[in-house]
Amino acid sequence: MKKIWKKVSFVMMLIFTLMIFAPYTVMADTQVVSTPVKVVVDVQLTAADKIFVPSSEPIYETDDCLKTTAAFKIVPESDKDDDLISKYNVTATYDGSVYFSAPTIGDVPIHIDSSKIKINYNSNEDYQFVLGKVLSSTAKLLDNGAAGPTQDEQKQQIEDAKKAEDILYTKLGTSLGIAGDVPEFSWGGDKSADQEKEGTVTFSDEDWGIFSSARSGYKGIRAGYYDDWFKSIQTGLQKMKDAGITARDVKMTEWEKLVLAITAIGYDPRDIKAYDLIDIISNKENMKASNEYFTPQYAIYALTSRNYIDLIPNDGKHITKDDLDGYIHEWAKGALGSKGADGSAVIGNTTPDMWTMQLQPIAAYYNPNAKEGDEYYDVKQAMDHVFAQFSNAQTYKGSFWGGSVDLDGSIDLNNAWTNAQVYMTLGMAHANIFDKMYIKDGKTILDGVLERFDVKNGTTDFDNSSYEPAQICRGIDSLVRAAEGRVSIFDCTDVKDSTVPVNNAIAALPDVYKITSADKEKVDAARAAYDKLSDVKKASIKQETINKLTDAEKKLSQSQPVKVTGIGLDKTSADLMKGDTLQLTAAITPKYATNTKIDWSSSDPTVASVDENGKVAALKKGTAVITAVSEDNRDAKAQCTITIKENLSVTGITFDKTSVKLIPKAALQLTPTITPNDATNQKVDWSSSDPTVAAVDKSGKVTAIKVGTAAITANTEDGNKTASCAVTVVDGQGAIVINNVKLKNKLALAAGKDSDYEGYFTPDDLASIKGTIDLSNLDITDSDMDVMKYLKGVSAINLSDNKDLTNSSFKKLKFDWIIPKGLDFSGCTGMKDIKNNMFAFASSKLTSIKLPVGISSIPTSCFSNSKLLASVEISNTVKSVGNLAFSGCTSLAYMKIPGSVTQLGSGCFSGCTNLSVLDLTDTSLTKDNIKDTKCPDSTMIICGKNVKLSPGQISIKIGGVQKIANEIPSGKSVLWGSTDANVVKVSSEGVITGVNPGTAYIYAKTDDDSYGGVCTVTVTKDTPPQPVSVTGISLDRTSASMAEGDTLQLTAAVTPQDATNKKVDWSSSDKTIAAVDENGKVTAVKSGAAAITAVSEDNNDAKAQCTVTVMGNNMPKPIQITNLTKDSSFKLGNDVKVSVKAENNSGKDQDASLLVALYDEGGKFINYVCGKQTIKNGDSSILTGIMKLPEEGIYKLKAFIWDSLENMNPLSDIIDIPVQSNK
Fold first, then answer.
1. Which residues lie closer than 8 Å to 13 by C-beta, 6 or more apart?
2. Is 795:820 a contact under the CB 8 Å cutoff?
3. Do 977 and 1006 contact (CB within 8 A), yes or no?
4. Alpha carbon distance 173, 154 (integer Å)
5. pLDDT value of residue 8
6. Hey, what's the signal peptide range on this chain (predicted)?
7. For strand 453-454 and strand 459-460, is the pairing parallel, antiparallel, or unpaired?
8. Cα(98)–Cα(72) distance, integer angstroms
């Protein structure tokens, strides 16, 4: 019964509850709740103007000197809200401070904390008023009315500015590249991977330093320095071109800056022989390919620096003056800035350097008197706006504010980059720098300039770590030029002793055969201009330019008709296809001959005809001789043999491989052979049956992508003949792919494989390499460096002279540090800098390092706590060593600082507890100015002039003695010392005695620190050496072609170099074709092919092979040569000029090197000259070699063609040339 009641009670209570709350529940579902409407309002503040009174510097954004007051007004976002604002009494209050943004004198933006604005209004249920925008507002920081400088004071400021430039050049001359010896020109960076984009190659030529100092007229530079710099550019660019660097590989701005520097020192960039600099910087495609931000701006500076723009052809491919004008008008439009709500221009109070640099070139086109309708009226409008903004951004100090605020809130009022760009812009516009609009609180622009100089004492707080000094000097010089009314800094028409106008004058002369007496005045003027040049400038002008002037003078000076003495053709032979045409060009000797008319004829006009202008038409298959004869002298003639071929069809194609296995990412070059080898059209199209497995490019390079199979097919365009190679891509897990062939061959040998090994490597393969490995000059790139981490057993890696390596190759992750390692980066000119803390990491076991030429500094903490680092070789391009650079390097016993270093950072040798000798000889450093380095008190510091200790490196046994010679001047007191007397001791006379095994340094110095020198001594035990096993062997050649009866000396090299048993056993796979003796001398027996093998006696697994192909004497040579040498023999002491016609019948394009070789009477090779050229299949070429013969002796000359000096494969017969006595 109780249970029933409980159930009933529960139900009744539930019903009662629902009855009570049901009405309210229904009401909640149906009642409309009223939500206030949000009304967004803006706030306009009006701040009070004030006269700026500076506080102590630095000035912060929230300093009281920038504080002001302001009134706040509500502004509706919509006109319909006006009545609501009034009805509900909407106002704004602000509980915070109001500040000017910066101490610039003029209209200054106001800064507030918008979170402290409160919107107030009458309480109501309909509207809620919320803050929208705080409208921008400015107020005036007023000039204090201080008087500006008098005219005399202005003149003094200009003179002080000139002195400031000299102070900066003198202090930082080395970093600017204008002090000491001219550094060797070098380059670094990546070549262009896509011809539509430029590469990243840059120059180490300090062109801005050269340009700036030359334009400033800096007199502290060594006489002849600019001349030597230009010579280094000439030489360096030629080396760069020979290394295969194209114009597109280099950043455009590098070329543009180089043109400016060359022009500024009075040379002509058109006299650079390796590259056509003006063509490069005016090429539209180069401009389009450039990624550099200021390429167009620099192009304008360079092309107008000496009016080169007027000489550029209007061919659609090059920039013209109209194109430059297009840039100017475009930038003028961009410089006008934005408009305010009332339509007026918005004038800011900042001058960011990038903004200024972008518009800067238009300043040169500014004319304050330009009127509407004038060509550059838009430039006037733009520059007037820019000048107004400059004025509004000028601070109370006279400097210009770029908008920079440091992290601590301090305002950077005198940023050197910002101000230098403003100075240059004002100078280019020839602005009045003492105009009242640029005088603030009595301070001028030059007051801002001179703030960081103590002109009286000749000092400045500028250094090379914060700002680029050359840019600062260009800015100062621009102001000085404007004040003195001189041309602007980028207008080099004021350069004296310049070769540019001389070249222009000569280029403007008519061709010599058109010269008449009416041209005499022009010729005389060109000669007068040339004669005024210095001798070194004259020598820089191209010889063909000088020849044009002298030929013109000869033509004018002749009183009688000048007879033609000779004639030459630009070609002496040519192969044409039927239907082709060829323009032959004749050259008359002398050029100034009176009658230069030429008669043309063909030996067989049915085969090849020629018109009166030398244009040849190929009519049918055969040979004809085209003759050019002087009308003036019928004995003066030249000929060209024309061979006309008809189309020869392709009949087949084969591959050097028909199947191959690869792993993913591996690459393989397939080589097709076309039949016949002289087929006319040998173009091949490549394809892959599955590019997702193996892809192939247009040259036949196959790249494995993923596991699978694919057929690589080559299809001839002529005849549709095909060849295929089956590519199987297998799982390459754990495999290491090396695509750099040179590096691969080197590592293969070191790992005990054949030098031409085509497979992949395993980590164990590379870990098996021990000791030192030489990887120098292998064209290693950054991507190749990933393999270094697998060289776990290597203790030293020589990476020198790999010029394509960049800074990323320094990264610690590139190397395995289980075994301590030494690294050699000398000659790696692509490395330009090192980062802070580069080798300062916990696992570093760096034992030695040779730094690359090109880096300018060793940065902060670079090698900190590299406790095993015992040897550092610093390159002579380093100018400073950073703070803590070598701190904690406890194994460092000796440090040589090169003469290029002018600054050692604070604490750079702190904690170097074993640093025995710090060698500062040949530097400007002394004991007094390196105290902050914190080297140990026990360190012997050697200063003064470096003198040679001889020998420089000594190895003696325990108990051994040796006298060390020195070159310290007599009369000087010499102090001798050893860094470790427990290893080697030295007497006061320089006699050393070996004490215990080890290495130590012996030094000799004068007591007045005027001279000093150091040598290295290694003391060894008198114990028998341990045998060193051979691990690899290589040959100087892997293939060779020989004629029957020829001999060839092969040379084997064993690895490691200090192996105990270096004996090699030689064998031939077929002695009836090619035999080899016990010394590696190969004799060609009969036609065929044989493999010559060299095997180490110490390790039979160490072997190498050379494939020898023997050609029968009756077999035609790949290159047929005909002796064209005029002289049948030559006399001793005379010059030899040998010319041959080389015809390529090899079936492929062929590299051909003409060797003119000199042998003594016993057949010993004495000397040679070599000329190299690539000859297309079926073509011919004239090759010439010139040599000076000895004065006495018995000799013979031979001329022949090899494929190259490296391979020395003979391609032709030998021509014997007699040598006669000179008696």
1. none
2. yes
3. no
4. 28
5. 34
6. 1-28
7. antiparallel
8. 11
Are 805 and 825 within 8 A, CB to CB? yes
Give the pLDDT confidence score for residue 19 in this predicted structure. 36
CA dist 950 and 1006 (Å) reads 17
Topology of the domain covering 1120-1220: Immunoglobulin-like (2.60.40)
Q: How many CA atoms lie less than 13 Å away from 648 in the CB half-sphere?
A: 17
CATH fold, domain 1032-1111, is: Immunoglobulin-like (2.60.40)
Q: Which CATH architecture has domain 566-645?
A: Sandwich (2.60)
CATH of domain 658-729: 2.60.40.1080
Residue with tokens 């080169």: 308
CA distance 470 to 214: 11
Task: Fill in the DSSP letter of residue 1204.
Answer: -
Instruction: Tell me if 624 sits within 8 A of 603, measured CB to CB.
Output: yes
- 14 membership: H or E segment, kind and range: helix 2-30
Residues composing the chain:
1223
Where does 833-943 sit in CATH, by number? 3.80.10.10
Q: Are 873 and 851 in contact (CB under 8 A)?
A: yes
Other CB atoms within 10 A of residue 355 CB: 20
Nearest-10 Cα torsion for 808, 814, 819, 825: -40
pLDDT at position 675: 87
Whole-number pLDDT of residue 1165: 58
Regions of the chain with pLDDT less than 50: 1-31, 465
In the prediction, which pLDDT does 906 show? 86
Query: CB of 1115 within 8 A of CB of 1087?
Result: yes
Tell me whether domains 833-943 and 1032-1111 share a fold: no
Within a 10 A sphere around the Cβ of 509, how many other Cβ atoms? 18
Q: How far apart are the first and last CA of the chain?
A: 155
Position 1101, amino acid: D
Q: Is 740 helix (H, G, I), strand (E, B) or coil?
A: coil
Each as own residue / partner, the long-range contacts of residues 599-605 (CB below 8 Å, 24 or more positions apart, any chain) are 599/628, 599/629, 599/630, 599/631, 600/626, 600/627, 600/628, 600/629, 601/626, 601/627, 601/629, 602/626, 602/627, 603/627
What are 331's two structure tokens? 């930038």
Q: Could you tell me how far CA 129 lies from the centroid of its own chain?
A: 62
**What pairs with residue 641 in β-bridges?**
573, 625
Report the pLDDT value the prediction gives residue 51, as an integer from 0 to 100: 93
Residue 1164 pLDDT: 58
Domain coordinates of the chain in residue numbers?
39-141, 178-319, 329-484, 499-557, 566-645, 658-729, 833-943, 1032-1111, 1120-1220
Helix, strand, coil percentages for the chain (3-state, nearest 5)? 25, 30, 45
Q: Kindly report the backbone phi and psi dihedral angles of residue 458, in degrees, each rounded to the nearest multiple of 5, phi listed first.
A: 70, 35
Give a three-class secondary structure readout of 774-838.
Answer: ECCCCCCCHHHHHHHHHCCCEEEEECCCCCCCCHHHHCHHHCCCCCCEEEECCCCCCCCCCCCCC
Cα–chain center distance at 448: 36
SS (H, E, C) 535-586: HHHHHHCCHHHHHHHHHHHHHHHCCCCCCCCEEEECCCEEEEECCCEEECCE
Cβ atoms of 637 and 565 within 8 Å: the answer is no
Distance CA(836)–CA(823), nearest Å, equals: 18
Provide the phi-psi class of 622: left if phi over 0, else alpha when psi is between -120 and 50, else beta. Answer: left
φ/ψ of 532, rounded to 5, equals: -75, -15
Q: What is the pLDDT of residues 614-632, one digit of tens each?
A: 999 999 989 999 999 999 8
Tokens standing for residue 454: 């103590």
Estimate the crossing angle of helix 295-304 against helix 321-335, to 10 degrees: 130
User: Comparing C-alpha atoms, which of 223, 228, 172, 171 is closest to residue 205?
Assistant: 228
